[in-house]
């Protein structure tokens, strides 16, 4: 008997989150995403302002992302000397009505220094601006140092971690602001041994993982270091540099004028850890995944979908010790597309890429920001948000899509299939003949008016 | 079908901002280190950046020490090299951060100090942008910095850096 497992139902209709008539050439960038059982929240850079450069916007959905409410934006209070960026949002895993947001504020043009802001909703209505409060993340050094690229994770039980890069101790290195009381008080953990500009978190059970770029061998090599903590971020153990590659003559990509090669993003399940990064393919930027199945003792890496085009901003998530999902933005001809792929053997092989965006789009290839997107697995579905999407607009917008399955763990026996069933390969071609001899792979199954996507193991 | 829902823009949230004055070119910022000026040091070709100094580092693996020399915040694409000489004892790392062709870059050298002066040369065209700053905002240029750090106890004489 053939068994098909649903693990990657296709993405549904795209929804424009930054849903107003954005001024021509003004971009919405760097969208981050967080989900609780009650809400889905988005936080992104908005450059559509006439009196200042940027604000970070916060919007929320109570209906699974079908509709979005723009709740608040955070502009710099000094619109001459300061500006805003790098938004990151987190959902509290122990309180479905509690969200946290961080971002950076640069001040003092010509010699910019920065602080990180921290926002949270204090009641039970994250969709109401009066429920929110924002402040400078401690330690507030009054813009004496440079701080940039914050990324937040809520661990539950009041535990919060915010990683950011700072030159407070000389070189740019990752510091972690850590709170055990929902942000009422904070202390700082210094990761001092690596020159680094950005870090990301993942929580698996009681273990927190961190990936960060490592410039200690710069500019000959870019490395990515992984650490783990089993005490909610109070102390960290290095798992070493999990991948090392030459950035070539530039960290930019031929069609993306930002240092995309410094990116990393991490996921883990048990002893399995995986990091998405930009693996150069000649001069092109392609998506790579470094993966370990022994708790980080040994690592391999591979392309996800090698191509002679640019792929940028890979975000990675996972649903089990076998299954990884990766999303990225890719240039296809003159347009860009948001794509995804999955692995059911923890990175050893990947499916052919599928579409997240239901459309191709123009894309600002020299954006003011744009270093990540949002990609979440939760409860059997994938949730995606991306930005810099000019579809149907003369400005870059934020779009959202989710998969449409009710359960990723649902199984289907072809023995019970209806007589009107048709099976298509990923490339769209119709499978003819005996369904029972299909090779391992991904198939679309049409039954009546419904279309399913299945992996045949 | 594309879903278009008019939601309008939300309400503004404000945070008071009270920036501290920036460091000026030639000024140092010290962490776990002490600095004294010295009078005798080699002179190299080019425009001198920073006074000759003797710096003691009290660093460790978990808490490295550093001395940061700030420079002019401008694009250094018209300059070719930054050179300096150091001597002393212990091991140091010298990282140069600068803007070149509009991108913020970094170059790094590790030096085992000796009683004799050692020349350290940075070729500004060799650094790569590493992701800080705002390349799309040419009015915003990140600070030029020379960060000398040590993860141990080290004593160093510094000649001043020379930009050519």
Describe the structure.
The complex is a heterodimer of chains A (457) and B (164). Chain A contains no helices and 33 strands. With 457 residues, chain A is mainly β. Chain A has one domain (11-409): Neuraminidase. In chain A, strands 30-1-33-32-31 form a five-stranded antiparallel β-sheet, with no helix packed on it. In chain A, strand 24 (324-332) and strand 25 form a beta hairpin. Residues 1-9 and 406-419 of chain A have low confidence and may be disordered. Chain B is globular and about 70 Å long. Chain B contains no helices and 13 strands. Chain B has one domain: Jelly Rolls, CATH 2.60.120.430. In chain B, the strands form two sheets. A six-stranded antiparallel β-sheet of chain B has the order 2-6-12-8-9-11, with no helix packed on it. In chain B, strands 3, 4, 5, 7, 10 and 13 form a six-stranded antiparallel β-sheet that branches. Chain B is mainly beta and 164 residues long. Classes of the chains: A mainly beta (457), B mainly beta (164). The interface between A and B is large, with 84 and 62 residues.
């Amino acid at each position: 008997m053939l068994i098909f497992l649903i693990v990657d139902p296709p993405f549904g209709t795209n929804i424009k989150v930054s849903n107003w008539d954005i001024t021509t050439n003004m971009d919405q960038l760097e969208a981050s995403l967080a989900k609780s059982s009650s809400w889905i929240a988005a936080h992104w850079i908005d450059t559509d302002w006439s009196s200042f450069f940027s604000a970070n916007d916060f919007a929320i959905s109570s209906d699974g992302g079908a509709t979005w409410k723009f709740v608040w934006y955070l502009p710099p209070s000094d619109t001459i000397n300061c500006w805003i960026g790098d938004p990151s949002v987190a959902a509290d895993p122990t309180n479905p009505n509690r969200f946290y947001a961080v971002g950076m504020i640069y001040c003092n043009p010509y010699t910019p220094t920065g602080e990180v802001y921290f926002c949270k909703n204090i009641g039970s209505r994250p969709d109401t601006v009066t429920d929110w409060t924002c402040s400078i993340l401690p330690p507030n050094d009054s813009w004496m140092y440079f701080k940039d690229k914050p990324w937040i994770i809520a661990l539950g039980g009041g535990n919060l971690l915010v990683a950011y890069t700072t030159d407070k101790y000389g070189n740019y290195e990752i510091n972690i602001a850590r709170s055990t009381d929902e942000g009422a008080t904070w202390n700082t953990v210094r990761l001092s041994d690596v020159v680094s500009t950005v870090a990301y978190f993942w929580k698996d059970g009681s273990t927190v993982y961190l990936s960060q770029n490592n410039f200690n061998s710069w500019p000959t090599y870019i490395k990515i270091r992984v650490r783990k903590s089993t005490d909610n971020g109070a102390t960290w153990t290095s798992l070493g540099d999990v991948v090392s590659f030459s950035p070539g003559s530039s960290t930019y990509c031929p069609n993306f004028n930002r240092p995309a090669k410094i990116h990393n993003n991490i996921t883990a399940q048990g002893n399995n850890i995986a990091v998405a990064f930009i693996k150069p393919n000649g001069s092109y930027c392609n998506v790579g995944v470094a993966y370990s199945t022994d708790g980080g003792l040994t690592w391999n890496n591979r392309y996800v979908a090698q191509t002679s085009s640019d792929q940028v901003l890979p975000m990675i998530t996972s649903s089990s010790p076998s299954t990884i999902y990766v999303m990225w933005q890719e240039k296809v001809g003159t347009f860009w597309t948001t794509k995804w792929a999955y692995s059911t053997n923890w990175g050893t092989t990947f499916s052919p890429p599928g579409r997240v965006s239901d459309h191709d789009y123009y894309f600002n290839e020299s954006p003011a920001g744009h270093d990540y997107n949002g990609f979440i697995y939760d409860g059997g579905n994938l949730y995606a948000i991306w930005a810099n999407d000019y579809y149907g607009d003369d400005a870059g917008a934020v779009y959202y899509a989710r998969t449409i399955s009710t359960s990723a763990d649902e199984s289907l026996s072809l023995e019970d299939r209806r007589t009107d069933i048709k099976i298509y390969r990923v490339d769209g071609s119709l499978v003819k003949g005996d369904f029972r001899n299909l090779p391992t792979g991904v198939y679309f199954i049409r039954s009546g008016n419904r279309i399913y996507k299945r992996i045949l193991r | 079908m594309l879903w278009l829902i008019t939601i309008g823009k939300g309400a503004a949230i404000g945070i008071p901002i009270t920036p501290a004055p920036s460091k000026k070119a030639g000024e140092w910022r010290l962490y776990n280190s002490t600095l004294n000026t010295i009078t005798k040091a080699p002179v190299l070709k080019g425009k001198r950046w920073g006074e000759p100094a003797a710096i003691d580092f009290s660093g460790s693996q978990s808490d490295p020490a550093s001395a940061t020399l700030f420079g002019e915040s401008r694009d250094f694409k018209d300059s070719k090299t930054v050179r300096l000489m150091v001597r002393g004892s212990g091991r140091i790392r010298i990282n140069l951060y600068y803007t070149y062709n509009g991108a913020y870059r970094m170059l790094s050298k590790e030096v085992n100090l000796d009683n004799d002066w050692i020349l350290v040369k940075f070729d500004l065209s060799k650094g790569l942008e590493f992701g800080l700053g705002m390349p799309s905002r040419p009015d915003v240029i990140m600070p030029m910095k020379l960060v000398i750090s040590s993860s141990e106890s080290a004593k160093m004489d510094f000649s001043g850096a020379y930009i050519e």
